[in-house]
Amino acid sequence: MKKTLLAAALLAGFAGAASAQSSVTLYGVADVGYTYQNIKAPGGTSKSQFAMASGQQNGSRWGLKGVEDLGNGLKANFVYESGITLNSGSSSNFTRQSTFGLSSKSWGSVDLGRRTTPGTWAFSGIDPFGAAFGTAALDASMGAQFMRLSNMIMYTSPNISGFGAAIGYSSQTGLAGRGVGIAKETAFSTSEKFRALSVGLRYANGPLLIAGMYDTYMPPSNSAKTTAVKQWNLGATYDLKVVKISAAYGQNIDGIVEGQSTINNAGLSGGDQNTGGGVLFAQGARTSSWMLGLTAPVGGASSVFASVQQMIPGGNFKETIGSFSSATQTTASLGYTYTMSKRTNLYAYYSYTNNVLMVSEVKANQLGFGIRHRF
C-alpha cells in the first residue's frame, strides 16, 4: 500500500524534503526464515549449519521514493533504499539504491547515484528464481546478471512497442577488485579507480521476453595488467500459460564478474547479506555459462519453479585457480511459493551445487524456507 507523505511523519529528518514533493512513498520487504546448508570438500571434510536467514526470496529492505511533476511531461524523482538483515536488525544504510533522476515518457529517464546496472534491468524476469534464493540464483553463474554500482549515470530509453535499452557508466564502482598485479584505487585520479560500462537491451511483448547485456569492468590504469573483464549474456522466456520456459547463455572474458550470489557461495550464505559483488581480473581466463528453467502455476495460489545451470572454466583458468583442480560448476534447484494474500507468501527451496566456484569435488546442499511480506 502506498503511504503518501507518511515518510515525512515517521522520519523528521526527511520532513523538509518530503513536503516539497508532490508525493513520497514508504515501501519495503520483510523476508525471514531458516536455512540448512552443508558443504563437503575434498578429503571428506564436511561442515553444516542450520540458522535463521534474512532475505532469501527478496532482500529485506525499506525505502523512500518521491516524484515531482515539473510540467510538460517531465518529472523529478529520487529513491533511497536500505537493506536490512532482519534477524539481527543491522542495516546497509542506503547502499541498495540512492539515486536522483529526471524522467519523461517521450525521451526516457536519467538516474545518477548508486543502483542496479542496465544489465540487471534487462535481465529482470529471466531467472525463475528472481536472482534470489541463495545458490539457486542465476548470478551464481552469470555474475553481471545482477549487480549494483556506485557513482553511475544511467540512461533508460522509453518503451517502444516492447523494445527498451539502457546504458550506464560508473567512474568508481564500489566493487572489490582482485587479481595478479591489480593496483589499489588512488584517492584522486579517475583512471586509477575501478570503472565500468554496462549496456542492456530488452524486448517484452505478450508471452515473449528477450534480454541481452554486455558489461566491461576496468581495473586501475596503474595496474601491472590492465585488461578489462568482459561479460555478455543472452536470455529469453516464453509463457505457455501452463508453464513458462526460461533459458540463458553467456561468457566471462579475461576474468570473472562476481555477482552477490557468487561471493556468498564461497561462504554458502542463505540470504541477502546486502553485500556488493566483485571482479576477478585474470587475463586469458574465460568461462561459459548456461541456464534452463521453468515456472509453473499450481492451483490458484501456488507456483513451482526449477532451474539447472552450469559455469564452465576455459582459457588458462586452471592457472588462475592455482593449486586446485578446476571443474564445471553445476547447480540444480527447485522452489515453491504459496500466496497467502496480495502482499504475503510462504516459500521453500532446495539447491545442490557440484564443484562449487569451479573447484573440483567441492559439493554443497542448501535448503531454505520462510515468509515474505511486501508493503
Overall average pLDDT: 89
SSE succession: HHEEEEEEEHEEEEEEEHEEHEEE
Proportion in β-strands: over 45%
The counted number of beta strands is 19
Report the end-to-end length measured between terminal Cα atoms: 6 Å
SSE-based structural type: mainly beta
Can you summarize the main beta sheet? 16 strands, antiparallel, barrel
Number of helices: 5
Runs with pLDDT <50, length 5+?
4-21
The general outline is globular
Arrangement of strands in the largest sheet: 1-3-4-6-7-8-9-11-12-13-14-15-16-17-18-19
Range of helix content: under 10%
| CA-atom Rg in angstroms | 21 Å
Structure notes:
- The chain is mainly beta.
- It is built from five helices and 19 strands.
- The protein has a 16-stranded antiparallel beta barrel.
- A hairpin with a 5-residue loop joins strand 1 and strand 2.
- The radius of gyration is 21 Å and the shape is globular.
- About 5% of the residues have low confidence.
Topology:
Blueprint: H1 6-10, H2 15-19, E1 23-40, E2 46-54, E3 61-71, E4 74-85, E5 90-91, E6 97-104, E7 108-116, H3 118-123, E8 148-156, E9 163-170, E10 176-178, E11 195-205, E12 208-218, E13 229-239, E14 244-258, H4 260-265, E15 278-298, E16 302-315, H5 317-321, E17 329-339, E18 344-354, E19 363-374
Parallel strand pairs: 10-15
Antiparallel strand pairs: 1-2, 1-3, 1-19, 3-4, 4-5, 4-6, 6-7, 7-8, 8-9, 9-11, 11-12, 12-13, 13-14, 14-15, 15-16, 16-17, 17-18, 18-19
Give the tags:
16-stranded antiparallel beta barrel, about 55% strand, mainly beta, globular
